[in-house]
Amino acid sequence: MIGMSNYRRWRVAGGCYFFTVNLLNRRQQLLIDHIDLLRSAFRKVRDAHPFHIDAVVVLPEHLHCVLTLPDGDANYSKRWSEIKKTFSRGLTATENRSRSRIRTGERGIWQRRFWEHVIRDDSDSASHIDYIHFNPVKHKLCARPVDWPHSSIHDFIHQGILASDWGTCGSPNDLELG
Questions:
Q1: Is the per-residue pLDDT at 177 higher than 60?
Q2: Residue 151: is its pLDDT beyond 70?
Q3: How far apart are CA 171 and CA 30, in angstroms?
Q4: Three-state secondary structure call for residue 23
Q5: How far apart are CA 148 and CA 155, in angstroms?
Q6: Which residues are registered as beta bridge partners of 23?
Q7: How far does Cα 63 stand from its chain's mean position?
Q8: pTM attached to this predicted model
Q9: φ, ψ for residue 150 (rounded to 5)?
Q10: How many CA atoms lie within 13 A of 36 on its CB side?
Q11: What digits encode the pLDDT tens for the residues 93-145?
C-alpha cells in the first residue's frame, strides 16, 4: 500500500490532470439526458473552487476531461466531490442504492472513485486531448468527432486549433486510459 506521503507527491499544485469519471450504472445515459444540469454543476463548482477546463467530452455514462488547477492548489478531489454532489442533488432520487450507500447517505449515481493522470508535458497533453475528442467515435456514438455535440472539439475548431474534419482520416493514438 502506498503511504499518504507518497500519494501526496503525485498531486501537483497548479497541475494539469486527465480524468475519467463514470456513472455507477454504466447502462444509463444520465449525463447527456441532463447535460444542462451537468454544465451547471461544473460552473457552480468552478466559481467556488476555480479550475480551467482544457478539454472535455461527455458521453452517456462517463466523461473525460483535462483540467488545470490554480497555482498552489492540488485539491481535485474536492472539485469532483462537489461536481458529483451538485449534479446528483438536481436529479430525482429513483436509483437503487446499496446498504453501504444508504448508511452513508450517498446517492447511487456515480462510481465512488475516478481515474486521474498528471499531464507531464505538451505531448502528453496533446495525446490525452486527442483521446478525449476521438472518444465518441471509439464508442460508436458517431462517425466523426465533430458529430458529437458534448465535446470541446467544437471550441478547438472554432479557435482554429483543429480542422472540422479532424479525426476522419484514421484514428489518433488509441490510448487505453479509461
A1: no
A2: yes
A3: 27
A4: strand
A5: 12
A6: 110
A7: 4
A8: 0.86
A9: -100, 60
A10: 0
A11: 887 878 887 788 788 899 989 999 999 999 999 999 999 999 999 999 999 99
Give the C-alpha separation, 103 to 117, whole Å.
Answer: 31
For 125-156, the DSSP string reads HHHHHHHHHHHHHHTTS-SSGGG-SSBTHHHH
- What pLDDT, on a 0 to 100 scale, did the predictor assign at position 14? 83
Cell match 471550441: residue?
A: 155
Residue 167 in grid coordinates: 479525426
The residue among 118, 111, 123, 129 whose CA lies nearest residue 167 is 129
The answer to whether 148 and 142 have CB atoms below 8 angstroms apart is yes
Contacts 24+ apart (CB under 8 A), 5-13: 10/118, 11/74, 11/76, 12/74, 12/118, 13/69, 13/71, 13/72, 13/73, 13/74
Rounded-to-integer distance, Cα 157 and Cα 163, Å: 6
